[in-house]
Amino acid sequence: MTLIAILVGTIAAGVGSVWLAALLGFSVLARYTQHMLSLAAGALMATAFMHLLPEAFESEAGAHELFALLLAGLVFFFLLDKAELWHHGHEHHQDHAHDHDHATSGPDHGHHHSHHQHARGEGRSGGWAVLAGDSVHAFGDGILIASAFMADMRLGVVAAVAVLAHEVPHHIGDLVVLRQASGTARAALWKVSMAGTVTAVGGLLGYFLLNRLADYLPYFLVAASSSFVYVALADLIPQLQKRLGLRETAAQVAWLLTGIGMVTLVSRLAH
């Protein structure tokens, strides 16, 4: 009975929060794309600095080890980004050579080549880093929910609802990043939902190996934090660093603070 409750609770929290975020986020995203980038940056940074990292440092894990892991995570996602950009650049170079060889193939060539440039050249990085961070974060959430259910059934329900609630504003930010990276709302929703199912994996393993996994939970939290900090500072914030009028700048800052405020408020209410 406890195992079934853990699976239901983790799936509801992990995947349910993604779909709720999509219902709230995509309706706004269609109208305010640039503002949603500010919101996403604020939500990701707040998730890392106001929720995950404080929870990790409140544990018995050594601060030196946690900071070293945070640094290693940032370097890892930088290298992952470099590999992704190199791979896309290599593919684009091959496409360019292929198009050059068929330059006389017909009047649609210009359109065909511009389509490849749009598909490969304009895609934003950061997608894989967000998915990796989401998966690690979801795994940690699963362990937390499992431990709550094993302590008391009612506490488990409260924990699952709390995880669902505090993940919604964060997942709105994830969906913004993934929609930019993959190009479609459906692909973004599917990818973030798949990452959300890792919550159930964490819950399942937590049920059988709770005592062993609980000691590693602070490290999961810091690893997830490194991905969110990297994506916010390396991918989203640079897109916002444009020379804008006073009104647009004020709106940009307001949406950034809204993202921070949403995550901070919901995290405190969840606790």
Describe the secondary structure blueprint for this structure.
Layout: H1 2-29, H2 33-57, H3 63-101, H4 109-121, H5 127-151, H6 153-182, H7 185-196, H8 198-214, H9 217-240, H10 246-270
- Following the backbone from N to C, one meets helices and strands in this order, namely HHHHHHHHHH
- Class computed from helices, strands and strand pairing: mainly alpha
Q: Please compute the radius of gyration using only Cα atoms.
A: 20 Å
Beta-strand residue percentage = under 5%
| Apparent shape | globular
Biggest sheet features: none
Q: Give the count of helical stretches.
A: 10
In round numbers, the mean pLDDT is: 77
Instruction: Give the tally of structural domains.
Output: 1
Poorly predicted ranges (pLDDT <50, ≥5 residues)?
107-123
What's the count of strands? 0
Helix content: over 70%
How far the N terminus sits from the C terminus, by CA atoms, comes to 26 Å
